[in-house]
Amino acid sequence: MTDQVDVAEAQALHDGAGGRSLDAAEQIMTELAGNLDGVDDLTPYLERLVQAVNANIDGCDAVGVTVVIEDRPRTAAYTTAGTLEIDAVQYAVGDGPCLDAFRNGRENLVDFSGGEERWPAFMEGCDPGSVQSLLALPLVSGGRRYGALNLYGNERHAFDHTELRLARMAAGRAGDALAAAVMLAGAREIAGQMEQAMASRAVIEQAKGVLMGRHSIDEMVAFELMRRQSQEQNLKLRTLAAQIVGEVRSSRSEAM
After folding, report:
1. Which has more pLDDT, 211 or 66?
2. Which residues, other chains included, contact 73 with Cβ-Cβ below 8 Å and sequence gap of 6+?
3. How many angstroms separate the CA atoms of 210 and 204, rounded?
4. Using CA atoms, how far apart are residues 202 and 200, in angstroms rounded to an integer?
5. Which one of 18-22, 38-42, 172-176 scores highest in mean pLDDT?
6. Which of 13, 34, 98, 236 would you label with 132, given CA atoms 20 to 30 Å apart?
């Protein structure tokens, strides 16, 4: 399924994003232009968006998208599973920087080690791990709010000098994509699709773990490798992930 050439190319693409120049960021953001052809395009679109933001905004070590449909927040796309606990605490206590960005339409910058006092229940229940900074931007389209774009940094004050124009552009495009999807299919169908996407992530996380162990690469490079292969083979990401996991299970069965 994978070879060392593919791994080397994925690593090079990931490492090459380190320059994070404005021109490169704008080129990647143009990849996200245009309209959704159907509701099935929403999740892949948001996955491309979080990867593009992560690769091209200074101080950013992880990215997620919180979508609020029918009053329920869900993490619709993310670059690393390590930030899901931060999201989950917000959803459990019903408050936090991402939900506040959605409800009030404002940008929130959080320093986890700086005595944040705005969301006490969230701060008390949250163990951010290596994350020191969080920037949450509202997803807005046509005056309606759909969630938040969340940038995570492993350094304090990671986003103090960030080119916010790029983050706002990404948030705007995510908002427009969600608005288009709701118009195409309705909020209930989008909510159902989000639930299916969340269920499929279990096998995607398993596949990433397989590739990380097999090739001694980190989580983000493993995802980039899977993303490139899914495009080259014209397979949905979850289908490719199931194949990778299935290969491992078959190998174990044969070895028994």
Report:
1. 66
2. 66, 67, 87, 90, 91, 98, 99, 102, 147
3. 10
4. 5
5. 172-176
6. 13
Q: Following DSSP, what letter does each residue of 92-142 receive, concatenated? A: HHT-SHHHHHHHH---EEEETTTT--S-HHHHHH---TT--EEEEEEEEET
Residue 152 CA to residue 173 CA, distance in Å, equals: 19
Please tell me the total number of residues recorded for the chain in this structure. 256
CA distances from 51 to 65, 142, 145 (A): 11, 25, 22
Residue-wise pLDDT tens digits, 95-105? 999 999 999 99
List the one residue out of 37, 145, 132 whose CA is nearest residue 99. 145
HSE, CB side, 13 Å, CA atoms: give it for residue 165. Answer: 5
Amino acid 3: pLDDT: 55
Distance CA 195, CA 83 (A): 18
Query: pTM of the entire structure?
Result: 0.74
> How far apart are alpha carbons 38 and 59 in whole angstroms?
33
How many Å apart are CA 210 and CA 188, to the nearest integer? 34
Question: CA-CA distance, 144 to 174, in Å (whole number)?
Answer: 12
Residue showing tokens 């279990």: 202
| Per-residue model confidence (pLDDT) at position 34 | 66
Do 112 and 128 form a contact (C-beta atoms < 8 A)? yes
Nearest residue to 132 (alpha-carbon basis) of 29, 211, 238, 60: 60
Q: Rounded distance, CA 95 to CA 67, Å?
A: 14
Q: Which pLDDT score is estimated for 20?
A: 46
Alpha carbon distance 51, 79 (integer Å): 6
How large is the average pLDDT for residues 111-130? 91
Query: Residue 252 burial by CB count (10 A; 0-12/13-18/19+): exposed, middle or buried?
Result: exposed
DSSP 96: S
State the average pLDDT for the chain. Answer: 82
